[in-house]
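Lay summary

Proteins are chains of building blocks that fold into shapes. Our project writes down both the chain and a compact code for its shape. Here are two examples, one after the other.
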Amino acid sequence: MPPDVMINIATLVPTRACALRLGEKGQTLLRAAAQQGEPSLALEMIRLGACIDYPDTELTTPLVLGLTHLVVLTAVAAECPAQLSRSEDYHRSKRRVIRIAWVCKLIIEQHADVNKTDGDYAPLDLACKVEHWNLITLLLEHGANPERRGPDGLQAVNRLTATGSKTRFLGLVRKNSNPVRPAKPCPCWSGKLLDECHALGPKPYPSVFLCRSVSGKLHGNCRLQRNVSFQEVWYKPKQALVTTQRSYGDPRELCPQMSQWDFSGSTSAFDIWRSYTVVLDLARHEVWLR
């Protein structure tokens, strides 16, 4: 991954990931993941709420960018001289092609707009250019328009060279003539569909994740030990998981020292100050959650 897009994920906790823009073209971290073929980064950014179709200043979406680089790298590998095909650079490029295709598959399954384009080639055009059948099939299953013409006036089927490939493509088109888009996997990566997971209602914020208090500690080692728990729920308008609720326990459990304070009689200024800091701490939480 290029140094200019390296970032500590911990700094993203309070930030909506889709708004994080890098460089002159407004590149987001999800776009960087699609371009570079970084599955781990793509998973993290989608988990944090990255907008799947968030474009750069040139209106290029992560899916289109990833597929464009897939086409370029595939063409370079195909034209590589035989003596270079055994080099580490060649094999590194081949591995990158596999990773980019995996990230593109992930983005499609998260219901990216498969017909959205910046006026150039659509995702289906690009997948057909390299005859990547897994992506071609997936795009058609998710509603890609096979009749759309690119800037050169050609439909996606005309980008396939072999007659057998065109026949195979038309068979897939007939099979998916009236597709019902497959359900979206839950972006918490539980392995369940969204409708069977977070869309059903709030779920506890994972204790092994960084605490939403931005303390830098794990949630299980921070607020959760003080009975301040966060919950996540699927927020449809933003198409993202958001923290929606927190629960407070007994104030004496939030701050164990409070059980030792005596408020029955005269209260020292220091005890009042300690009480104030606890209340202020909770207030900061409430403001942040809004």
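And here is the second example, written the same way.
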Amino acid sequence: MRPFLSPLTPRWRHTDSLPSVLTPFGPSDSPLPKLRRSLVEVMATGTPDSQARFGQSVKGLLTEKVNTCGTDVIALTKQVLKGSRSSELLGQAARNMVLQEDAILHSEDSLRKMAIITTHLQYQQEAIQKNVEQSSDLQDQLNHLLK
């Protein structure tokens, strides 16, 4: 009959049903026998002073683990917030890109219109230049006729 194994009971304490090859370290074989002993064993064999030190040690380890978990929760929260902010920033960047694209298209259209206006102004300048040349020729002819 196999003994009841509680999820909290260390496995090395119930090795009578395992083959010898699969038997884990026992309390005396462990490289760290003090860490492998149960709380009940330590409390039963220790003096009040050692029990107090053990309690302080456990309390310190527990505090350290709680602080580590708190730090991990804070880091995870920051990552989640950063992830939600990054999607917001990505959406804002997409909206800005659409606005910039519209501005670029508008600028392109304005440049085409300005090129057309420049061409018309060049034609008008050439026409005015021809008229000035013709008017100076007419002025010369008029002066010649008046003499």
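What can we say about the second shape? Helices lie at 33-36, 39-45, 48-146.
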